[in-house]
């Protein structure tokens, strides 16, 4: 009879994968990941069918962590600007406090290893963002532009903001606020 899989080992593999991807990109070897996780390389493939399956699981693991962080103590408001500011602050804080996860997430997001199913599952987690964007457009608060473009603006400005904060952590509030102002100018209707 096969031994049950260990959540502890699975989490160790995911954590080691995040570290490896953050430092070496997607070319990080499973041997390096296994060593860092304290398991044999074969153990990785007991938990994950292949490296692509592992990478997709890492993406879900990171996005679940981000989703939980953002939704912890979530704002209940219908004011689009207030909600977006709160979302921005939480997203930037998460990235600044979890730089390895953020770097790994960036590597994964620009790769072609993520399956459509994983991308769809991640998108479903962030439907509230889409609802706020739609409401803001309908109310004339946000500029009429494709959601994909707004996602790109969010991603680009958040990346720049988080990278600067990681270099100057004592100025988190300053750079988070400057990033917010740039983000708001890029998506809001004329002010």
UniProtKB/TrEMBL annotation:
GO terms for molecular function: DNA binding. Keywords: DNA-binding. It comes from the Bacteria. Residues 7-66 form the HTH tetR-type domain. It holds the Pfam family TetR_N. This is HTH tetR-type domain-containing protein. Residues 29-48 bind DNA.
């Amino acid at each position: 009879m096969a031994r049950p899989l260990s959540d502890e080992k699975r989490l160790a593999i995911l954590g080691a994968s995040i570290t490896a991807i953050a430092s070496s990109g997607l070319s990080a070897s499973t041997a390096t990941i296994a060593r860092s996780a304290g398991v044999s390389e074969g153990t990785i493939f007991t938990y994950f069918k292949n490296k692509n399956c592992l990478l997709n699981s890492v993406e879900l693991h990171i996005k679940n962590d981000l989703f939980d962080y953002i939704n912890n103590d979530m704002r209940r408001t219908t004011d689009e600007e207030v909600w977006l500011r709160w979302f921005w602050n939480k997203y930037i804080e998460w990235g600044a406090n979890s730089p390895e996860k953020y770097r790994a997430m960036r590597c994964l997001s620009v790769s072609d290893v993520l399956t459509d199913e994983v991308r769809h599952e991640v998108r479903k987690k962030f439907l509230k963002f889409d609802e706020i964007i739609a409401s803001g457009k309908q109310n004339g608060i946000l500029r009429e532009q494709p959601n994909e473009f707004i996602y790109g603006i969010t991603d680009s400005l958040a990346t720049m903001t988080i990278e600067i904060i990681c270099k100057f952590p004592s100025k988190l509030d300053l750079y988070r606020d400057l990033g917010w102002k740039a983000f708001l100018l890029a998506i809001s209707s004329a002010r």
